[in-house]
Amino acid sequence: MSKKTIVSGIQPTGNLHIGNYLGAIQNWINLQNSGDYEIYLFVASLHSLTGKLTAEKMRDQIEITFAELLACGLDPKKITLFVQSDVPEHAELAWYFNCVTPVNELFRMTQYKDKTEDGQSPTTGLLTYPILQAADILIYQGDLVPVGVDQVQHVELTRDIARWFNNKYNKYFTETKPLLTDIPKVMSLLIPDKKMSKSLGAGHCVELADDPEVIEQKIKKAVTATAGGEKSPGAMNLINLLHEFGDKANYKFFKDAEHDGTIRYGDLKKELSHSISEYFKDFRKTRADLLKNRTQLRKIMSDGAGKARPVARKTLGEVRKMVGVS
Predict the structure, then answer these.
(1) Which residue from 219, 261, 293, 302 has the highest number of Cβ atoms inside 10 Å of its Cβ?
(2) What is the pTM of this model?
(3) What is the CA angle 12-14-18, rounded to 5?
(4) How far is the CA of 16 from the CAs of 24, 207, 208, in angstroms?
(5) 10 and 20 in contact (C-beta within 8 Å)?
(6) How far, in Å, CA of 218 to CA of 115, rounded?
(7) Rg (the chain; Cα; Å)
(8) What confidence tens digit (pLDDT) does each residue in 208-250 have?
(9) Which residue numbers are catalytic?
(10) CA torsion 152→154→160→165, rounded to 10°?
(11) Helices (H), 169-293
């Protein structure tokens, strides 16, 4: 029985943070190490063009993000790890999907509404972003996409696009399904009712590459007793992080202390800072080593694209024949 294919990606919009790690990367590593799947993971360079990075910053950040994925434990020998723009077939397939996707379906996408309401420029790229996502997945005949419940809408649109194409031309593309993942909810350190995000600012998140001193300062400034008791989202956010990165006994101690009102937030913050620093100690060293040798890093990136492109070319060659341009 052939393995199911998993496809996913992450934008190079800034250094990876603990929300990225718990929300996606940790799960990718577990799926990779299970040996049960054919996995394609990529740095979503084309998607990030909807943001505000300069060309120089973009080039640098692509390499940093790739190095950070390697440092986390993603293994190019076990999976296909590459940069999206190194496989231009993604963009061509997205155009064919543009031609079968009703525009009204794009205007109803939650991500487009949220980003434009937050002030992001409503460009065509931002609107058609989900079509490129569909191409990313379907060019490798992706069976599954690991997502949280809040991201299911994009997988549903990918499945719809596959159906629209199949109905117009030929039954060819897989109808992708979400691989629902129980993602720990990581909230901002400073606004604990908002999801941790780089866009909120540096103080809101802990980056995987942060030095211990930086982690300590960020956690020290984290909001805690906003509502008191177990209803305090700031305190519970820190305790939940201790569950993910710290010792089980320490986690239980602070959770019980929060429940009975005896917790000392200064002690919690010290323990959490130490736990996160130790957890990513090897990551920081590996990341630094990779970024010292950019030539070798680019070789790994090129090798990854070399594994992905033959699969993408095969799909695109068959699609071109189906639509009549080849």
Answers:
(1) 219
(2) 0.94
(3) 105
(4) 11, 6, 6
(5) yes
(6) 27
(7) 21
(8) 999 999 999 999 999 986 544 456 888 999 999 999 999 999 9
(9) 115, 195, 198
(10) -150
(11) 212-220, 233-245, 248-260, 265-279, 281-292
